[in-house]
Amino acid sequence: MRTILNRLIANAHWVLFVILEAFSGWMLFNFNDYQGSVWFTQANALAGYLLEKEADFLKYVRMDAVNQELTQKNLLLQYNNEVLRRQLFALTKDSSFTEQVQARLLDGIRSIPAHVITNSIRQKDNYLTLDKGRLQGVRPEMGVVNGTGIVGIVYLVSDHYSLVLPILNSKSSISCRLRGTNYFGSLRWKGGNPLLATLDDVPRHARCHVGDVVETSGFSNVFPEGIFVGKVVDIHNSSDGLSYQLHVQLGMDLANVRDVCVIVDEHQQELDSLESMRIPDAGGQTVRK
Predict the structure, then answer these.
(1) pTM of this prediction?
(2) How far is CA 71 from CA 17, 59, 68, 76, in A?
(3) Burial tier of 9 (Cβ tally within 10 Å: 0-12, 13-18, 19+)
(4) What Cα–Cα distance (Å) separates residue 46 from each residue in 35, 39, 53, 164?
(5) Whether 254 contacts 166, CB under 8 Å
(6) From the CB of residue 61, how many other CB atoms can be counted at a distance below 10 Å?
């Protein structure tokens, strides 16, 4: 300890120089708008670059496990696809019917593959960052999914990156339904367990059971209908007793999500334009439709 103190005293002028330089830099960037904006822009760009490289390194380290997981998912998808194909053929006796249904469901839908470079699960309002942005076709209000369920909704975009509002955020509310029915509600996360969310406002007359599958309803322009969300693990009455509150085990583990897809609905602009139209009511006033 004495040796360290002696060295600091012997080089006190250098220590003072560094302190003064740091103080002057702080004053320069905090009290001058132009210099401050340049500094923070460059710092954010550098931070984004370093985080992206870190994510690439971690992805490389976990590549074997990821490849195994993808192989299992592909086999399961192929099996499910073949089962559905046989069932449809048995019902319709038309081998082209399956292709017609798939084409109709996916008409105008495509996806942009992206990688998660930062995320969090321990906050009340969590966010995650993707390595795709405006230049790659990502826009706000686009849905984000992965192989096990929905991830969230794009919130902000820059040229090369995008910020996503995931399910694990108190501001998130996604329209979901019980598979095989038209009963729907709002999926929200209320903190705590990152694998458990709540489906609110399900009607009291809905027939729901533990183990029922929860999927997207398609009532918004963000997610197409039928995307897996999770399974019901518990059923409660709402606080006012007028509806059910379902606890849903999420299929997506945000702590382990790396590769995602941003859903692009090519009819989105047309739908937004239609919904923003104003039509006159009976009193001659204009209302939003």
Answers:
(1) 0.60
(2) 58, 16, 5, 9
(3) exposed
(4) 16, 10, 11, 20
(5) yes
(6) 10
